[in-house]
UniProtKB/TrEMBL annotation:
Pfam families associated with the record: FeS_assembly_P
Gene3D superfamilies: Fe-S cluster assembly (FSCA)
Domain (MIP18 family-like): residue spans on this chain: 26-100
Official protein name in the record: Iron-sulfur cluster assembly protein
Superkingdom per UniProt: Bacteria
């Protein structure tokens, strides 16, 4: 049996043996990159939530063992379970995968969540009477928020690029009016998830069911969308900072997030000294 293990997704320095296991490790990391923190709307690999990945060749197929970590021990259990469960599903779908073990480390519900994942008990089977909301309903709620934030980024970018454009004009902007780039691509991905039209003449400012807004309601709708976007961006940077504080060196595993970044976010690797009087 040969095995490959890496403690940091971005620093996969694997030994020269076990080529199949090395390929499996990379495939596992690619699969984990499709798993998104529902609240922060970002892949868990970019957030640094993947603590380690190992792949071993066994007679009954590849065995994968993944450890996840979160910014605090009291992060919401339903979010924690959702990410861990999605991670296991994404890896299990890989060809040639035999056994998949995903464990969440250092969380107050680690024992419960890890036991539920091992037994494939599902969300309600894991938390039983404490499961107040269906997990898919929760996922849908945050998919809608992610769409709202993506929509606001695109429209605010357009308004800033043309100061003569009145805010109320945002209600008639179509997908064809948006400049090509990462924000538009992100918006199209989120529209696809919600089943919203992606045709060029589709109006950008719509609710989660695709309904537009009356001319007089556009400024308020845009401000509400802005508050959603600021909340997501703020939480994302806050959680990133907490993870870096909790796990030394974890910042190396985080991808840069430019949306909502403050100047201090670009100086986290500088030495930090506290001067006491």
């Amino acid at each position: 049996m040969t095995a490959v293990e890496t403690e940091a997704p971005g620093q996969a320095e694997a030994p020269q043996q076990g080529a199949q296991a090395q390929q499996a490790t990379q495939a596992i990391l690619n699969a984990l990159a499709t798993v998104v923190d529902p609240e922060l709307d970002e892949p868990i690999t970019d957030l640094g939530f993947v603590r380690s990945v190992s792949a071993s060749e066994t007679p009954w197929g590849m065995e994968a063992v993944v450890h996840l970590r979160l910014p605090t021990s009291f992060c919401s259990p339903n979010f924690a379970y959702l990410m861990a469960s999605d991670a296991k599903d994404a890896i299990s779908a890989l060809a040639g995968m035999g056994t998949v073990v995903v464990e969440l480390d250092d969380h107050h519900d680690s024992g419960l969540i890890n036991a539920g994942l091992a037994a494939d008990a599902g969300y309600r089977g894991t938390f039983r009477h404490e499961a107040e909301q269906d997990l898919e309903d929760l996922r849908r709620t945050f998919q809608r928020k992610a769409h709202t934030a993506a929509m606001e980024r695109c429209l605010t970018g357009l308004l800033r690029a043309d100061p003569s454009l009145p805010e109320s004009a945002a209600g008639t902007v179509t997908l064809a009016d948006l400049p090509e780039g990462g924000h538009k691509e992100a918006l199209l991905r989120r529209r696809k998830v919600l089943g919203l039209p992606e045709r060029p003449n589709a109006v950008v400012l719509v609710d989660h069911e695709g309904r537009g807004y009356a001319h007089d309601d556009v400024p308020l709708a845009l401000r509400r969308a802005r508050s959603t976007r600021i909340s997501i961006d703020g939480n994302a940077h806050f959680c990133r900072g907490l993870l870096r504080t909790r796990y030394e060196g974890s910042g190396r595993d985080q991808a840069e997030r430019h949306d909502g970044a403050e100047p201090a976010d670009y100086h986290r690797l500088l030495p930090f000294h506290v001067k006491e009087n």
